[in-house]
């Protein structure tokens, strides 16, 4: 098995992991556990795992300096704590397909944040991309369809997902300097620990009061999937593939994730794909594609692989 094949296999597996989560989470929420309880289990599990691995693989590596420590705290707040609370709150209220499509707004937020924080140039195609993507997202958020009876609070859920994509896009810009300077497990253990301080106060009660004795086997398996595959394994595969994957290749898998989410949701009967949603998806995809076009003569950027996941 060539190294290039392993990279593609890792990226595809991560895309499948996150695409399946949009539908599998609907089994757990809200019947067996609330969204904040799931976030608590997921983050606490990741903190324990990444801290343990960091102890063995990078015991001497520490984040030093006031600026880096403040950045790591901000990354933990945006990328883990607030991000996860918004995502699962939104997914609990809206449909899997709508949530997966709105997640693709994150690369647009990355470009806007990079222009503000890193003084990167915004070209005319990128301005058009931001406008087109925003139009697609606004149409999706405000649309009402035949599923209104199933998701009566879908508009609020879509707004939560959009806010989630926004804070995650900001996180991607903030975390890059830390990932380049420190060992990956040093950064991951720190930001998940900070995220735990944000999320656990909201979700500990849901996690502790859930009626675990009533959980059927498939619910246990889906919760295990969200802790082990969705959080730990996906981050491990991402950090490994980041060494070999090009930005162009990452773009392909950014588009692949919502496509897989649609296929999984429709095949499981969790959602339906209408012509309206297809048109909204086309607008969002076109906007993301325009934004991803780098200015002529500009060096190819180092795109964080986490852009393809939540």
Automatic annotation (TrEMBL):
Species of origin: Hymenobacter frigidus
Mode of membrane association: Multi-pass membrane protein
TM region positions: 7-24, 36-57, 69-91, 97-117, 124-142, 154-175, 187-205, 217-237, 249-268
Domain EamA: 10-140, 156-292
Keywords of the record: Cell membrane, Membrane, Transmembrane, Transmembrane helix
Protein name: Membrane protein
Tree of life domain: Bacteria
InterPro entries in UniProt: AA-Vitamin_Transporters, EamA_dom, EmrE-like
PANTHER family cross-referenced by the UniProt entry: INNER MEMBRANE TRANSPORTER, S-ADENOSYLMETHIONINE_S-ADENOSYLHOMOCYSTEINE TRANSPORTER
SUPFAM superfamilies (UniProt xref): Multidrug resistance efflux transporter EmrE
Subcellular location: Cell membrane
One Pfam family, short name: EamA
